């Protein structure tokens, strides 16, 4: 609940209270209450239910209420109700504090549900209304007894002042002091007191407010056993207790008897229906008698004390809610800012240091998407527990929202060593989490901002840490990065690029280059790999490494990826039909880790194949291990579907990831592309040669086609041929080139003796 809403609620309650206490008599108070409640909640209908009857109502046609229907709906906590002559309404109700089946009910037409703030306000109005109605009942009874009009007025004033103090959220001690003062005055006794049972010892109560007790006496009875004296009996027996002949009674507080108190009366104070203390009055006048009226009045004060205490607790809870994340219980952004502000002020004073860590979970969305939101929530809870475990007492961990956390490190107990804490957190996240039966590994990226002498403000620090976090993400998951001032301009550039990237697709700024893949045994052109470039209006031709990561981060890779596929198929299909020698020309298209596994991938690929009338067996989709390992289950389903359509699959950059034979065997892969890092210089490095040879022979054993990418020299080419690699790709054979250049060569090849010479261009 926001503080704004809280303010709105107390303001509304104060007005509501003013309206009902000035009503003058019980029936009018109920009428006013129900009208106010309905108006405040913008509801057409309202009713007060007491003792199985409707005692006040508004908005029901002809004033007629189907009482049984209404009571049944309230009892069932129904959120909707059909009202004859009105229609279907949203319903909300709140129980009376002091009457088991009393309720304040409002209903409004349409299907706008009642908000949490409105429900809270309803509870407050129901409580105030029930207390006020009780006071009027007591006064009505008194009318026939001894109370004068003046006394009635005084009682009403005192009690509504107390209610106002409660709704104004005056400090609890002030409210309780108003209650003891009011009780003492109205009941015309020498002393009044409120006692509460100790939280850690149910046999002892403590004095929390008193009026008329000399300070020494108050100190003497500050703590007293439950079950002794009028107060003690009222608590132990949960009933109103009257005691006379105080000096002679057995179970009394001797300190009070010694002070000359002769008669006492006490009533239990409850919180949520449970006795938690008492309110008492005591007199030194011999023969002082507490009649029925006096007892009613004390009971009314006891109810008010109950209300004040229940409210104080609700207030604490609201305070907690306003400053803590409901899911993890960690401080929220507001509290984090407040603490950071204080820490910076302290650092300015003490010339100390403050550090902020910004933690973002890597690929958290995958967990939500694949295991569901409940598992995602559980993961956030578990992460926050591990996070707490990494911190010292004075440090604060907060959840800023989503999968973003922040940590505040102060010098309070030692020097600020942000990097160590960051490492500790990343380490703590390493062991897998158990979520709905499956083990899930997740890493985080951390940005670090440090302020010396408190020279930054909270907002700047958090933003700096956020920027550094982005850098950490670029370095790969599971790392941390310190903020550097240059990052601001980098971030601005990135933002600008992001905007331009969004428009690039509409403006048709992407182009495809094609790099030939050559049969290493025959030298024939086998296929082409489509490689995207961005023709930026001012930056020129931007290579994929400069924008694909950004496109992946923003999700733009998905539409861009489908454009690439369509464009590549259209182009290669044209070559297949235009050049007889290229009628079996294949094409390879890269898929990003954001595209695999997506539930609709296979269907979209199928659609594009059909649109472009492309033979699926001539299309190879290149995926990387990382794409497959993130969610192996879903990736498997996705790849099997593509396989069934007849599309070929290649594992790109093989040898750089966490590849193991097991992974390769698990997926329906047709080809392995040996990563450039093992190919370039293979002729001169024994190590690379060993890896390349191992991959190629493994591929052959598994009946997988092998492709060497990054062949740059004749010596490398010779080695790969010697290893019996199937296909080759590299600058030595041909660079990636625009479509028209491929076309030129295809055309030239038509006249040349062999296509081999066309593509074996020496550098
Ligand atoms: P990749 O799929 O492994 O593509 C091969 C990259 O190696 C290409 O870089 C190519 O130009 C480069 N290359 C080929 N032969 C040689 C060589 O002999 N020496 C050297 N030094 N490099 C060589 P490019 O076009 O810059 O693409 C880089 C990466 O960007 C690609 O690696 C791929 O992961 C990604 N990418 C490119 N186009 C696309 C695309 O259309 N979609 C997606 N999702 N990713 C793409
Ligand atoms: Mg590739
Ligand atoms: Mg590659």
What is the topological layout?
Layout (H helix, E strand, L loop, with lengths): L2 H19 L4 H15 L4 E6 L2 E6 L8 H9 L4 E4 L3 E9 L7 E7 L6 H28 L5 H19 L4 H15 L4 E7 L6 E8 L3 H6 L2 E3 L3 H9 L3 E3 L10 H5 L4 E9 L2 E10 L8 H32 L9 H18 L2 E9 L2 H8 L1 H17 L6 E6 L2 E6 L8 H12 L3 E3 L2 E3 L3 E9 L5 H17 L5 E3 L4 H20 L3 E10 L5 E12 L3 E3 L1 H11 L2 H22 L7 E5 L10 H11 L7 E5 L1 H6 L1 H13 L3 E7 L6 H6 L4 E4 L1 H4 L6 H16 L3 E5 L4 H9 L4 E3 L7 E2 H13 L3 H5 L4
The site of one magnesium ion has 4 residues, from strand 24.
What does this structure look like?
By secondary structure, this protein is an alpha+beta fold. The strands form five sheets. It has an eight-stranded mixed barrel. The two termini are 69 Å apart. It binds ligand C2E and magnesium ion (2 copies). The site of ligand C2E has 25 residues, from strand 20, helix 17, helix 18 and strand 24. The site of one magnesium ion has 4 residues, from strand 24.
Question: How many beta-strand runs?
Answer: 28
Give every kind of bound small molecule, once each: ligand C2E, magnesium ion
pLDDT under 50 segments (min length 5)?
A: 753-757
- CA distance, first residue to last residue: 69 Å
Q: Please list the strands of the largest sheet in the order they lie side by side.
A: 19-20-22-23-24-25-26-27
Q: What percentage of amino acids are in beta strands?
A: 15-25%
Key features of this structure:
eight-stranded mixed barrel, alpha+beta, six-stranded antiparallel sheet, binds ligand C2E, single chain, binds magnesium ion, 763 residues
């Amino acid at each position: 609940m926001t503080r704004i809403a809280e303010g709105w609620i107390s303001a509304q309650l104060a007005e509501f209270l003013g309206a009902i206490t000035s009503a003058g008599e019980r029936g009018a108070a109920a009428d006013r209450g129900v009208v106010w409640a309905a108006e405040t909640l913008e509801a057409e209908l309202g009713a007060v239910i007491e003792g199985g009857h409707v005692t006040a109502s508004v908005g029901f046609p002809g004033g007629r209420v189907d009482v049984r229907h209404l009571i049944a709906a309230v009892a069932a906590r129904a959120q909707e109700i059909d009202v004859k002559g009105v229609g279907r309404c949203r319903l909300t109700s709140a129980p009376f504090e002091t009457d088991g089946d009393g309720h304040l009910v409002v209903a409004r037409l349409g299907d706008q549900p009642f908000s949490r703030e409105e429900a809270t306000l309803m509870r407050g109005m129901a409580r105030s209304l029930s207390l006020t109605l009780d006071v009027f009942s007591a006064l009505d009874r008194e009318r026939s007894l001894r109370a004068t009009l003046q006394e009635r007025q005084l009682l009403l004033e005192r009690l509504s002042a107390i209610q106002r103090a409660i709704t104004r959220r005056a400090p609890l001690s002030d409210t309780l002091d108003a209650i003891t003062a009011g009780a003492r005055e109205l009941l015309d006794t020498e002393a009044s007191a409120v006692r509460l049972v100790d939280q850690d010892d149910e046999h002892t109560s403590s004095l929390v407010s008193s009026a008329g007790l000399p300070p020494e006496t108050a100190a003497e009875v500050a703590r007293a056993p439950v079950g002794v004296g009028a107060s003690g009996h009222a608590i132990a027996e949960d009933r109103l207790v009257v005691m006379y002949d105080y000096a002679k009674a057995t179970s009394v507080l001797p300190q009070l008897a010694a002070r000359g108190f002769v008669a006492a009366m006490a009533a239990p104070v409850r919180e949520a229906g449970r006795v938690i203390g008492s309110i008492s009055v005591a007199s030194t006048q011999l023969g002082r008698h507490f009649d029925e009226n006096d007892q009613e009045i004390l009971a009314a004060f006891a109810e008010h004390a109950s209300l004040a205490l229940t409210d104080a607790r609700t207030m604490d809870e609201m305070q907690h809610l306003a400053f803590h994340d409901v899911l993890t219980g960690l401080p929220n952004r507001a509290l984090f800012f407040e603490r950071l502000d204080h820490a910076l002020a302290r650092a300015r004073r003490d010339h100390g240091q403050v550090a902020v860590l910004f933690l973002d979970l890597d690929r958290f969305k995958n967990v939500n998407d694949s295991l569901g939101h409940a598992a995602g929530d559980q993961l956030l809870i578990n992460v926050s527990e591990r996070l707490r475990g990494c911190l010292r007492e004075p440090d604060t961990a907060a959840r800023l929202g989503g999968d973003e956390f922040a940590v505040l490190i102060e010098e309070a107990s030692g020097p600020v060593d942000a990097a160590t804490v960051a490492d500790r957190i990343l380490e703590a996240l390493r062991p897998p989490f158990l979520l709905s039966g499956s083990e899930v590994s997740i890493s985080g990226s951390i940005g670090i901002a440090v302020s010396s002498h408190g020279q930054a403000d909270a907002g700047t620090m958090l933003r700096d840490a956020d920027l550094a976090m982005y850098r950490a993400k670029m370095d790969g998951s599971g790392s941390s990065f310190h903020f550097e001032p240059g990052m601001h301009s980098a971030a601005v550039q990135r933002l600008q690029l992001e905007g331009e990237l969004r428009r690039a697709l509409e403006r048709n700024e992407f182009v495809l280059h094609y790099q030939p893949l050559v049969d290493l045994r025959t030298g024939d052109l086998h296929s082409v790999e489509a490689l995207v470039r961005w023709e930026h209006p001012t930056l020129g031709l931007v290579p994929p490494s400069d924008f694909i990561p950004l496109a992946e981060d923003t999700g733009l890779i998905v539409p861009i990826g489908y454009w690439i596929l369509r464009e590549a198929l259209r182009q290669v299909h044209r070559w297949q039909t235009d050049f007889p020698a290229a009628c079996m020309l294949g094409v390879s298209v890269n898929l990003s880790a954001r595209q695999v596994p997506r539930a609709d991938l296979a269907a979209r690929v199928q659609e594009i194949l059909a649109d472009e009338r492309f033979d699926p067996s001539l299309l190879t989709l290149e995926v990387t291990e990382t794409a497959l390992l993130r969610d192996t289950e879903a990736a498997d389903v996705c790849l099997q579907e593509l396989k069934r359509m007849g599309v070929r699959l290649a594992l790109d950059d093989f040898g750089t990831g966490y590849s193991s034979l097991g992974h390769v065997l698990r997926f329906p892969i047709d080809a392995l592309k040996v990563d450039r890092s093992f190919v370039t210089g293979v002729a001169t490095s024994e190590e690379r040669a060993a890896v390349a040879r191992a991959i190629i022979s493994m591929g052959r054993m598994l009946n997988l086609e092998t492709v060497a990418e990054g062949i740059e020299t004749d010596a490398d080419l010779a080695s790969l041929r010697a290893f019996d690699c199937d296909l080759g790709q590299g600058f030595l054979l041909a660079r990636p080139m625009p479509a028209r250049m491929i076309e030129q060569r295809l055309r030239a090849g038509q006249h040349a003796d062999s296509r081999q010479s066309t593509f074996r261009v020496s550098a």
